Amino acid sequence: MPRILICDDEEGILRYLSKLLKTQGYAVETFSSGTALLARLAVTSMEPVDLLLQDVRLPDINGIDILKQVHQLRPEMPVVVMTAHGTVDDAVHAIRLGAYDYVLKPFPKEKIMGVLAKALEHHRLADENRRLREELQRGGDDSSIVFSSPRFREVYDLTLQVASSEANILILGESGTGKELIARTVHANSGRREHGFVSLNCAALSDSLLESQLFGHLRGAFTGAIMNQKGLLEEADGGTLFLDEIGDVSPTIQAKLLRVIQEKEFIPIGSTKPRTVDVRFVAATNRDLQLEVAEGRFREDLYYRLNVISLTLPPLRERPEDIEPLARHFVRRFAARMKKELHGIDPDALLCMSRYHWPGNVRELENVIERAVILAQGTQLTSDLLPVCSRTAPLRNDEVTPLVSLDTLERQHILGVYRQTGFHKSKTAEILGISRKTLDRKLQEYKAE
């Protein structure tokens, strides 16, 4: 969850904002002085911070001086300043120094939440672009796509086949199936990989903000436009623009996107001069766009412009063979990130994960594994660390065996017996009815020795 720091010397403001943001799902830390805030930001080993909400007037350090030091400590972190009517000039000064936006006290709930949502989305986009540039400098890498199922292999092979074309691509699938990862794979294997991959979640923004983000604006184009801003179309020039949740875009924005695709040009807000752009569009949605077209909510001409090639990602429940390799991949990733010695997953945990329906797909699996790694005390991930196991009932006599491969079932059974014998190899081999040499080979394959 996004982590927001709040700095204000008014205790009532801190209590109000802390309660408000926590109810909206944010992690919150509060500070009543600039000194305490800067001390927290100086400790890089603590939880990363996504946004700072700071009063422009503080008793111990001037808010402008704090902003300068914050940019030295965390240059990538957006800052939203709070100010009273009499100190608007200070807020404007803060914006010129790099603050993302400001809000006037007293502020309504809707106002502050709207500004914070925009700032966090801006931070997410900037972070994604930074990570992409790092990947491109390494030559590109799609190794994080993990699968073993024939269903996903078909999609992946088709992805590689169409990536080298210039055709626009529409990616379909439920939320959490990995649509953005496939979009990045398209870009990394295309002739545009040396240029930018820019991602935008269309559902997260209002019409006006979405238009500004896409097309950019000139200074003075609207209230609050204090400087020229380049749009994401220009940022993606020569590269790929990924439009996630394209089904949520309004008819007005649909018409403007259609013009860009057809004419290869757009007009920034506040300008009268068109600008040309060379962008490949990859769009994604979890909606049935054909139904949206039939019911008049999505333009038919835009649908066909985007849907030159379609890739449909199967949900995780329809490719259960991928659950175990994905889970092991996430364990390795999070264990390395958290510097924990985790060497595998308990067979009981694997079995319960294979029985679970995974309505949130790969994203839910990733979140479950991250939580388990955080809580893990031993060297293996066990079922008691997985909340999905408590929601997965044991199989009844009339139920079908979970849809996993024979290799997976064999691995789970061998490791289960091995664990129940207290990791006694001779007893395990005897119970399984196999030789000690065969058991040694299997355990080496499973990396369980």
Q: Care to describe what's here?
A:
The chain is an alpha/beta fold. It has three domains: 3-121, Response regulator (Rossmann fold); 146-314, P-loop containing nucleotide triphosphate hydrolases (Rossmann fold, 3-Layer(aba) Sandwich), CATH 3.40.50.300; 318-445, Helicase, Ruva Protein, domain 3. Helices cover 47% and strands 12% of the residues. The protein has 19 helices and twelve strands. It has a five-stranded parallel β-sheet, sandwiched between helices. A five-stranded parallel β-sheet has the order 7-8-11-6-12. Strands 9-10 form a two-stranded antiparallel ribbon. Helix 13 packs across helix 15 (361-375).
Question: What's this, in brief?
Answer:
The modification 4-aspartylphosphate is found at residue 55. The protein has 19 helices and twelve strands.
Q: What descriptive keywords fit this protein?
A:
449 residues; alpha/beta; Rossmann fold; Helicase, Ruva Protein, domain 3; 3 domains; 5-stranded parallel sheet; 12% strand
Topology:
Elements (H helix, E strand, L loop, with lengths): L2 E5 L3 H13 L3 E5 L2 H9 L8 E5 L7 H11 L5 E5 L4 H9 L4 E4 L4 H29 L12 H14 L5 E4 L6 H10 L8 E5 L5 H9 L16 H4 L4 E5 L6 H13 L1 E2 L8 E2 L3 E6 L3 H6 L5 H7 L2 E4 L10 H16 L8 H9 L5 H15 L11 H4 L15 H15 L4 H8 L3 H10 L4
Parallel strand pairs: 1-2, 1-3, 3-4, 4-5, 6-11, 6-12, 7-8, 8-11
Antiparallel strand pairs: 9-10
Radius of gyration from the CA trace? 26 Å
In terms of per-residue confidence, which ranges show pLDDT below 50 for 5 or more consecutive residues? 135-143, 393-401
Q: State the shape.
A: globular
Question: What distance lies between the first and last C-alpha atoms, to the nearest angstrom?
Answer: 36 Å
Side by side, the strands of the main sheet go 2-1-3-4-5
Number of strands: 12
So how many helices?
A: 19
Which structural class is indicated by helix and strand composition?
alpha/beta
User: Please, how many domains?
Assistant: 3
CATH class of the largest domain: Alpha Beta
Q: Report the CATH superfamily of the largest domain.
A: P-loop containing nucleotide triphosphate hydrolases
Helix content: 40-55%
CATH architecture of the largest domain: 3-Layer(aba) Sandwich
How much strand?
5-15%
Task: Report the sheet with the most strands, covering strand number, pairing sense and barrel closure.
Answer: 5 strands, parallel
Average pLDDT across residues?
85
CATH topology of the largest domain: Rossmann fold
